[in-house]
């Protein structure tokens, strides 16, 4: 008996399989869950009619942050972070940049300069994915910024391998509705997509550089992870297009680096099941059924969906974003979390969320000045509960090809413990690009220990990070910093 094919993007498959069995058993409202939940919503809007989200409670907020004067820059300077031990060895800034004055749409940023010789170091933008996850909360506070939060939810500790050791780091909460960023126009929350996010990011950059003019001629790089595999190529191509159109280099873009990138819906999904099989997480029977029933070309039969569901049931309660990572069972008692050999407290995102909702912290950050009607969240319900995300291309390969043709430095890197946006999916993307190899596959090392593997193509470098999950700087901070430093230098990581 033949089954009728169902035309769908990756989200419907997630709705049938990964979302139900995997997300149900992990922490909610954090970046680790976000791509799965977003993909569910992408497809749900096709098949479920009539649902409307309630508007964010700040929709009629009266204030808008305008302009970018030197006085406002000094007002954005962070004097002291609550819970900080001692005096910071670097300057920090936080505040808002308005990207649409008419709509009242303003984006929150956090900027931390290098402790030594910041004038000699590049400017680097970090973007988290989701869509809807905070580059400040996830990127800066969890992964690669100078501070993170102790389990008391109040005090901070310095991170030894913060990326501002080698660059001046800028983090944006984007789109509006993420973190402290907001809009005064209710419809903005129902008309968000890749294009608006890209346009707002560009407007932010140009405006922010007016506030920090010494960075206008500084080498500029864009980095990030996961769904930033959409944001980063789109923003980079827009910057290059604007520079050409005006014959003025408004933003001196030099390169991009994307970790565990979400670049192609079908290739990413196919790679997840290959990853399960390669890591002894599913049976030969389940894997054979998937290979027989699923073409991973955008058309999926009921038999294929059933085969994938069988595999997910066999896999059980494993965090797909780091298959060896522990799960936070009780944020108030971290000792109850499962044991793990990998780096990181699995409850850290809870500590960060609690800290960033403290009134004294928000005052220090010049955040929530309009009185948002909801708490700060690592991943925004206003965005990923949004049933109207307007545009999310099925594949980013055309954008990547366009960026390669521009001569922009491009690095892709993958933590090898991530099963969702896995190293295998990136390799499938590279196979599709068909780039000539210029430097053969080899290990790269730190202190004579293999830290990962790297291969150089014409126009692109791909590296893996051994022992890291989806959020590479969180699980392997030292290796991540070493790889990032090599990227900035334009040199392959050490042999």
Automatic annotation (TrEMBL):
Polar residues bias: start-end ranges: 51-72
Top-rank taxon, per record: Eukaryota
Cell compartments where the protein resides: Secreted
InterPro entries: AB_hydrolase_fold, Peptidase_S10, Ser_caboxypep_his_AS, Ser_caboxypep_ser_AS
Enzyme Commission number(s) of this protein: 3.4.16.-
A biological process term (GO) from this entry: proteolysis
One GO CC term, this protein: extracellular region
Region (Disordered): 49-75
Single Gene Ontology MF annotation: serine-type carboxypeptidase activity
Keywords: Carboxypeptidase, Disulfide bond, Glycoprotein, Hydrolase, Protease, Secreted, Signal
Keyword Secreted: yes
Gene3D superfamilies per UniProt: 3.40.50.11320, 6.10.250.940, alpha/beta hydrolase
Signal peptide: 1-26
Transmembrane segments: none
Family under the similarity heading: Belongs to the peptidase S10 family.
Protein name: Carboxypeptidase
